[in-house]
Fold each of these.
Amino acid sequence: MLFQPDMETMPLGKLRQLQSERLRHLVAYVYERVPFYKKQLDEHGIRPSDIKDIGDLHKLPFTKKNHLRDNYPFDLFAVPMSEVIRIHASSGTTGKPTVVGYTRRDIDIFSEVVARSLAASGCKPGMKLQNAYGYGLFTGGLGLHYGAEKLGMAVIPVSGGMTDRQIMLLQDFQPEVMSCTPSYALTLSEEFAKRKISLDSINLKTAILGAEPWTESIRKQVESGLGIDAVNIYGLSEIMGPGVSNEDVDEKGSGSYIWEDHFFPEIVDKDTGEPLPEGEYGVLVFTTLTKEALPLLRYWTNDITNIYYEHSSKRTHVKMGPIRGRSDDMLIIRGVNLFHTQVEDVIQYFVELSPNYQLVVSREGNMDEVEVRLEIKDTFSEILTSTTSHQELRGRVVKKIKDNIGLTMKITLEGPGSIPRSEGGKLNRIVDRRKVY
Ligand code: ADP
């Protein structure tokens, strides 16, 4: 379903015009209101009137996470606090949290893009959403909450974790939709299997999963474990929160629509910052076209993906592929770039393995080594006691990883339940022993 068909199917020419108008307004707005941007544009010799349309965007300097940190907590806000109605902060996965603010109009637009995202996922007014994203400073909980209300859903604001309670509510309240991180959806699907709970006791049709990278391997597992469609939602607090982009349930696996009337995306080279052609992988950069409280020019997300138009799809907006990882999470192992999602991708080829894994990185001499901790499924636990089958499986995994990723990794096979699970939020799958604390 399309929540705002006029925007979602706007012909590209008209969309570019709208984006250009919004960009012109934005640049003048931040120049006037945010001392940081005035200084940055002056230093680059750019006057707001130099930016005439969206094609001029590349002339503007990037905004990076350290700029938000340097202006902690509120110095990048473009409105007085009397116009701010909400403050959130990033979850601080990679250091000190960055603080973001919203005016009433910002919250309206946030709710609208989340409502669009939910509609694209297959949600309809009257359905119930069990919202298992964390409520609090993290944008996930309240973001999904307001968007679902906007669409006309009944929200069950359970927040993250508390697996017993989640299962009880799934059974008693019979929601059709749930939202949480993909790693937590995996935890839940394993709990259903472990407790032998019949899927007939719940009414779940869809899970809206995001806030961390995930692959088709996890999708398969969660969909079969819970009997649902699992749909991707992407976002980051600096740009808005969840709902910057979302998959359409009928076009699953082909990328997530970026709501580009509000968030203009670019893909740039991670080393040079040069814009890359459609389809190529690089750093995702966003310009917020309509935000009032914390407008950002060319914000460097650090997320690595690609963007492309698909002319056969329901909407005109550009799509983004799955996030491979953040560039600051990318491991460089003996000269090869490695994201943990590449290992996750390989796991799906082995029926003996559960989708849980962890990468342990260490340094031996001058060489970086990666150990992949993998877990044998319950039904294959005899592999753990038979030296031959253990070695045979390890050999196959080493080979597949070498063939697909180009690195030889040490494989450790462990018993069911030994790898850490998500207890409700984002899950860190990398242990880096090279870091000196
Ligand atoms: P933090 O940076 O502290 O984790 P946020 O909670 O704002 O703060 O998280 C935003 C980040 O989460 C994104 O930049 C991205 O790295 C990750 N993320 C969010 N949604 C997805 C998704 N669907 N797929 C992959 N990564 C995602």
Note: Residues 90-94, 138, 210-213, 232-237, 301, 303, 323, 326 surround adenosine-5'-diphosphate (CB under 6 Å).
Amino acid sequence: MTDHTALVLFSGGQDSTTCLAWALDRFDHVETVGFHYGQRHAVELETRPKILARLRAGNPLWGERLGDDHMLRLDLLKEIGGTSLTEDTAIEMGKTGLPTTFVPGRNLLFFTAAAAVAYRRGLKHLVGGMCETDYSGYPDCRDDTLKSLQVTLNLGMETRFVIETPLMWLDKAATFATAQALGGDAFLDLIIEETHTCYLGDRTHRHAWGYGCGTCPACELRANGWAKFTAAAP
Ligand code: ZN
């Protein structure tokens, strides 16, 4: 395992793309991992290769550091079902007090699978875009959950992985500002044009903040973050 290496959980969304730039800025060698889990919309997965190509072409240092991309199937999440991200059901507050977009165990599975890839590839830092600030109350995005998981993974694999969540305490406006600080206006433009957040998979409506339906909770968060970010810009 080499110190200055990372594996980024990369979905093609705004948060994970910002995390990828954060890792490329810091580590000598960075690989990416993505998951098919029977999500209703494959839009994010279609944007992933476009984002990787633009990152390679747009920044020579990042291009040099960016290594292999790994795609894994976690179809069991769809088999288990019962969420609005894997089935065509309403996005609303569920009986448990969590939105129906919550996929139980998803981030735990993602990090466990990512750690297994990192183990094979000799990569030390596992980077994810989880966030407690603007989140929808998902318990597997919590800092405590991921710190505890880091301990479990290291015990279970006899390793010294470090789970990194650079966006944990940022709101969406600060995430836009982070992207700009890391890669300037060119990277901010990539975030707007190519990353996908909308729960409904809408790529037909273009807003100042990017593509999406504009009304689902994910679009609302992104739109509000963009409004706050641009209001604060000089
Ligand atoms: Zn939307």
Note: The chain has eight helices and seven strands.
Amino acid sequence: MHIYYSDLAAFNSICTVSIFVEMDFDAVAKYSVLHAKPSGLTLQYGTAGFRTKAENLDHVMYRMGLLAVLRSKQTKSTIGVMVTASHNPEEDNGVKLVDPLGEMLAPSWEEYATCLTNAEEQEIQTILSDVCQKEAVSLHQDAFIVIGRDTRPSSKKLSQAVIDGVSVLGGQYHDYGLVTTPQLHYMVCCWNTQEHYEKATVEAYYQKLAKAFVELTKQAFSPGDSHRSLKVDCANGIGALKLQEMECHLPRELLIQMYNNGTKGKLNHLCGADFVKVHQKPPQGIEVKPNERCCSFDGDADRIVYFYNDAAGHFHLLDGDKIATLISTFLKELLSKVGQTLTMAVVQTAYANGSSTRYLEETMKVPVHCVKTGVKHLHQKAQEFDIGVYFEANGHGTVLFSKAAVEKIRHLAKEEKDNQKREAAKMLENTIDLINQTVGDAISDLLVIEAILALKGFTVHHWDAMYTDLPNRQLKIKVADRRVIDTADAERRVVAPPGLQEKIDGLVKKYKLSRAFVRPSGTEDVVRVYAEADTQENADTLAH
Ligand code: 16G
Ligand code: MG
């Protein structure tokens, strides 16, 4: 692994011998001018970091480079900076910081990020000093930052601005260049927990996943079997490049055909997981034959949804809820074979289809918890269990295994005398190795899902038939100030403005199997509406 120093780092060592002891504010100021903030612009570190038009982000990137160095010094760990705007249009971009174990940035630091981003140039110094003081950042401590970016035309230049910020504070860095968001999260975790994870290279990531996939599916594929083929819509994004690299390591029994690989279409335009989920139809650029299993990644490959058209030409979506159900059913079956009483739960948000919740609780007898929208909330809740399966309906999710559960499973996979139990434990062990536990990962999730379907001998139709989604509708509405809406109970109830919840309750009562909520978006200046009911017509009317 090489560590790169930019010319700025060299500049620092010449200009300020004392860089590791105190901040070189002259250099910070000099480079702040080169990464000037457009006047009057205010941004907020939201659910998934900063996101806006790429042309307004140069100063944000530079300042996030600065902040990443302080966070790295404070945590005495490697910190990640990912340049991406996920499923947003190509003209947008964004950035988020990744904390030591590959998780989202701590909330108090989100506030510093917002404050630093909106500061005028002459205030930067004070804010940096304040953060150091409040968080007891030791400037003597070394800082190491890993950086990644998606395929947007603006990403390369913006990640250079991050590097400027890192270097001006004397931080060292490694630029992974083009990677998926979950790959960068995984790399951060590798750097900080080297005894548990493989080497912090993208190649090692492929090898680890491929090995686990081959081991897990050993019994599923027999020689002479026909291929299991899967069509993947890569949203014209980074997922195409990285899935292609992954594919070289996979067994030939799994035939992956990639579409929207970025050579023709525009990123996220009429394709990708968000498009498919929101519009409930197949993406452009892919020919969907009846009953063919297809899936869509989003622009930075941290979400995946499956879909197919049935023989009558009807579109079927298998979203994050269906994925959570498939995975948790599989895990529960293995756990009962192993004969272990490990706690397992599924974590969802208010967007989870009512049918999925009912199926999990009533048929599968798996406890379900509902939390606020946003990966960090799901991740946190899932950590409370030996096995926490979390998915947002939009297709972002993963499975977390507690340290104790991993140890127990690995021990059984080696030492258990009963053949059947040992084999089940081995399958659990391979599932642990196949899943990216740092964050939702489209490539890793795809492999987990394909392995389970192959092992169960399931077609996409079998999987879909586990339960039937209630018809639902999502709308977004522009209002003067979305912040007047305040919610409680994991966003399922409105507490302000007064009277609104009563009105919603009154409407919901008019329909069967109905449910509805409104919440202010954390990523766009809109209010979101969700409604479900017994028929599509009723769900639509209720939402409107
Ligand atoms: C972000 C979140 C996603 C959430 C979505 C909600 C992360 C990494 N991503 O994309 O989890 O579902 O925002 O957006 O946290 P909204 O608040 O605009 O509905
Ligand atoms: Mg994404």
Note: The chain has four domains: 8-178, 204-318, 320-464, 472-543.
